[in-house]
């Protein structure tokens, strides 16, 4: 028996809030990636790690806020907590690999393609592992073609967002990249959900149980608190606010600012000619 699936139990509230959370995580993560390109080599891993955790937490929070609006009328839904939190770890790990590649190699060519692909696969892996953590009286079945489309959307969007972050063209550029990334993560999520069918195990009775919102809300407290703290770090970092487009560090993504400033060739100064002193001329012979 096919279950009756409803992905919008609260109307447009959950999709909009989920999109905003994806944008927030993307904005913080991409700004941290940009920031890593403006500092010395020793500080770069810390900023990239913070960016990876921010993006991973943002897309994980987006997914499960959207899942608060998901229900199957004929059966209650539970969530396996170890698998649910494992999906958060997978998101942070795989997004981190992609961001570190772009952060050290630059947002162009093979490095961008590799980093974007790994980041996109991390987003998709988080989604489907989180779905595997659902527990209900039925079996989840997916349309292969639609699943493949959702993965392509995730990879393409992640690549575009990392490219935009690597351009280092100021705050508004990063905000635009985060909006694109949020739209892509949300699009990937709902494309993946469109591929879902629920096959129930021989029951037609509507059973009662806790709502998805009541089950998921406690799990979201930690990632939401982390995003808040990451936002505070980014907001109060002076270089993030005062950096201007067109600086030497912004012209070479992936190269620390202090290296860029000191690799240029200094102009050769011409020796200044001393003025002739009176009586210093060599007397001419007649």
UniProtKB/TrEMBL annotation:
Any one Pfam family match given in the protein's UniProt record, by short name: MHYT
Q: Which UniProt keywords apply?
A: Membrane, Transmembrane, Transmembrane helix
What is the organism of origin for this protein?
A: Streptomyces vastus
**What segment(s) does the record annotate as region Disordered?**
247-286
Is Transmembrane found in the keyword set? yes
Q: Where is the MHYT domain?
A: 10-199
Record keywords: Transmembrane included?
A: yes
What parts of the sequence cross the membrane?
12-34, 46-71, 83-104, 111-130, 142-164, 171-193, 213-236
**Compositional bias (Basic residues) spans?**
259-275
Q: PROSITE patterns from the xrefs?
A: MHYT
What this protein is called in its record is MHYT domain-containing protein
């Amino acid at each position: 028996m096919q279950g009756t699936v409803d992905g919008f139990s609260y109307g447009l509230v959950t999709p909009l809030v989920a999109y905003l959370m994806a944008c927030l995580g993307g904005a913080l993560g991409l700004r941290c990636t940009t920031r890593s390109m403006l500092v010395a080599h020793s500080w770069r891993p810390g900023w990239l790690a913070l960016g990876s955790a921010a993006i991973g937490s943002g897309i994980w929070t987006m997914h499960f806020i959207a899942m608060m609006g998901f229900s199957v009328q004929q059966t209650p839904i539970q969530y396996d907590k170890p698998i649910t939190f494992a999906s958060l770890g997978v998101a942070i790990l795989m997004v981190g690999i992609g961001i570190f590649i772009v952060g050290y190699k630059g947002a162009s060519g093979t490095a961008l393609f590799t980093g974007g692909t790994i980041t996109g696969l991390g987003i998709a892996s988080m989604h489907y592992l989180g779905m595997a953590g659902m527990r209900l009286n039925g079996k989840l079945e997916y349309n292969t073609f639609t699943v493949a489309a959702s993965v392509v959307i995730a990879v393409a969007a992640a690549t575009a967002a990392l490219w935009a972050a690597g351009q280092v063209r100021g705050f508004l550029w990063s905000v635009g990249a985060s909006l694109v990334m949020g739209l892509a993560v949300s699009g990937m999520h709902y494309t993946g959900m469109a591929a879902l069918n629920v096959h129930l195990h021989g029951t037609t009775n509507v059973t009662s149980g806790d709502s998805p919102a009541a089950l998921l809300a406690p799990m979201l407290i930690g990632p939401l608190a982390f995003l808040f703290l990451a936002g505070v770090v980014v907001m109060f970092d002076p270089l993030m606010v005062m950096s201007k487009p067109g600086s030497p560090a912004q012209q070479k993504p992936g190269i620390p600012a202090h290296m860029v400033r000191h690799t240029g060739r200094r102009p050769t100064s011409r020796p200044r000619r001393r003025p002739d002193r009176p009586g210093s001329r060599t007397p001419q012979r007649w």
